[in-house]
Amino acid sequence: MPVELIDPEPCLNDLMNKLMTSAGQIDFNIADLPAMPEPQRVLMVEPTYYNVDYVINPHMIGQVGTVKRERAQKEWEQLASSFQKIGLEVIKLAGVPGLPDMVFSANQSLPFLDKNDRRKVIMSIMHTRQRAREVGHIEKWYHKNGYDVFHLNPDNIEDFEGMGDAIWHFKRKLIWGGYGFRTSRYAYEQISEIFDVPVILLPLKDERFYHLDTCFCSLDENNALIYPPAFDESGLEMIYKVYENVIEAPAEEAIGLFAVNATCPDGKNVLIQKGCTEVARKLNEHGFIVHEMDTREFLKSGGSVYCMKMLLW
Fold it and tell me: Is 211 a catalytic residue?
């Protein structure tokens, strides 16, 4: 299937077509990049069929069949309510039998708002066969709601797992692109072309941090939360070059509690797994408001707050 190009925007300048792999290639300031508005909505998939039915990441080992469904439902509802309390509209989609991981709705797509306020989305190519059918169900929602829907070329792109690996810089048209476990590096060539945005490429090196959203969180334009050992030296150099302040999560909170799989949709309110005391302290010191969520049942699948929603405009 060829890439579906629907009236792509003209190239703004050479900057907007770059794929960056080293700090020396980052020759711009964040303020130079086109602005994007804050997302106003989140898409969440109800956990009716959520469970650990198979093992596709290290966190699932020993967890098959252990999910407490009633507790998972309460945790999901608390998270949805918390998004509403900080001012976001929550769109709830029904779960699908046989797709227990569809609840992790950050993975099936990468939405975007262009300069003309047209809503666009690139659909994922899931890495594992167990999750492949999720994409079509999410795509139906985008079609019904007026998005221009794009597909990467599967002839040369093996996998791409949406906003699990492709993370927008807060309020700027810049993508941080993780790759190595669930996403092909070459996916970003097509993504950069379709959306006409630069991409900073971050290779991931620890299978426990198989998505970028497990070890990198863009808090606002100038602050990020990361787990440094998940990156190589070049990746860390790029992160530290772009962000004025980088908060580092300790191993016990990043690995055991998925501390970096937090989300900060508005640049001030951070939703994070309960018990991440050191990270919460650092966030408070930098002026963020911390909201502790209990996502213990979802940690069994290797996901937490960020994984359980898709930010939309």
Answer: yes
